[in-house]
Amino acid sequence: MHKTRLFGMFLLLATTIACSTSDPAATDGAGPDDAGAASDTGTDSGPVQDDAGPGDAGWTQPFEPARCGAPAYAWLDPETMGTVLESVAVPEFSLDRESINDLAAQQGFVGIEAKYGIKLHRYRYETQDRGQKVEATALLSIPDLEGGEATLPYVLWLHGTSGWSDRCAASRLLEWIMAAGLMGSQGWIGVAPDYIGLNGLGEPSTVKHPYMVGEATALASWDAVRAAETVLKRVRSGITPDNRVVVWGGSQGGHATLFAERYAPHYAPGYEVVAALALVPPSNLLEDIIVGLGNFSGGLSYRTAFTTSFARWYGCADRLSEALQSVPPNDFANTIPETMDNECVLDLSEYNVTKTSDVFTQPFIDAFLGRNWAGFEHWQCMFVENSIELTSVPRKSATPVLWVLAENDELVSTPLERQMYSDLCAAGYSMNHLECKGAGHSDGPMGSLKEQIAWVGDRFAKKPLENPCAVTEPVCCSGAKNEACPHLRNTSGFPRFPAPAAAAAVGS
Prior knowledge:
By secondary structure, the protein is of the alpha/beta class. It contains 14 helices and ten strands. The chain has helices at 3-14, 97-106, 174-185, 214-234, 252-267, 285-294, 300-313, 332-342, 362-370, 377-385, 414-426, 443-447, 449-460, 500-503, and strands at 38-39, 84-89, 117-129, 132-144, 150-158, 189-193, 239-250, 272-279, 400-406, 430-436.
């Protein structure tokens, strides 16, 4: 995958290539829709700072975080992050065990049974973006112990693409609410961040959603876990977290999972990351964009979106026309950012797009397909830094990883991700591979949910990985719903990765 050559070139260029020095922030106009949500008993909705976070005493900046010529910044002390600004119960999704199982049966849920009822809460908390304090939101799924007490681990549930503005927040969508609720029903503390720029409660976001930016999502996700401890205390749940965490996500969330795991020792060293599950992850965005530029496919929309997001986050928004077409009839360098600010789906078919050069400029395509970065060094750097195989963020952990792929993924390149699995194993990762036969992008994660839960249980039980780094043939996953596995076919679409309305057009 040209790893050595690309990474060496990146190290040289990262210190010399500068983007513009501003990233215009904007507030999305859509306000949160929380009608009917009840305030948590015995608390107000003002800021509540938790006690000192677990094991974070004596934290210092681990490395210079600014990359790719972005203006220098330093992280705020993580001990000061995670302040809860507001929390509300979500009673309509606080269900008993029987109701969860009835709903699952109605929807054809295969092989998954709730062990507990759940109580669901939304909360707004403080995190940081490029060294500046910002607000974000998350869901908390708590097992209902019916008056009992327990010490339980966290599952950090990282969602796939839902959109790019507040009204697209995953905590507003049934599919993601139920997915987060499933974590609580298994006896874990489910923490499901909306991500920065996707506020689902309280004041509108003041920054753009940093789509597929590893650092921004990782830091906000760990601060969501910090804040969850405060909410648990507020609602007198009887549950004490034990600081073990499983990081788990699909598609965009699979990418986020890999970066949350990478950043954990640097930003949240007090948590024990027991396991990571990366489901249909676009893990190497440099190789992914090259594949996409060379093959017109359904993934073009999400590649256009993360290219736009990178330009904004790294301060290069004024140079987006180097990558995206800026001439009539499709002035994408201007219309794509506007669409991302106002819509939850980016559907390029509306623009009569039939080839990649309708969207990306020919010089950009030529540079990436030819791997000749002259004049495009800052672009290469941004893709490298958000590729888990190539990023310069030091790896300091040895978390076991489950790599779940879909054989017929129409959005993320399965052949590329098979190679990434082998490359990461060669780099020292301890991994298992599962590929769902005949499955598409959404159905691979859903169809293997039973296998994923069993794998997580083995990690909590501290069982060693079986056949680590073996590359396995595609198999009929237990919840298969495709023609390749008719004997297991599940006609349900509940829940899905990503939400059905966005799946075909957005793609991650």
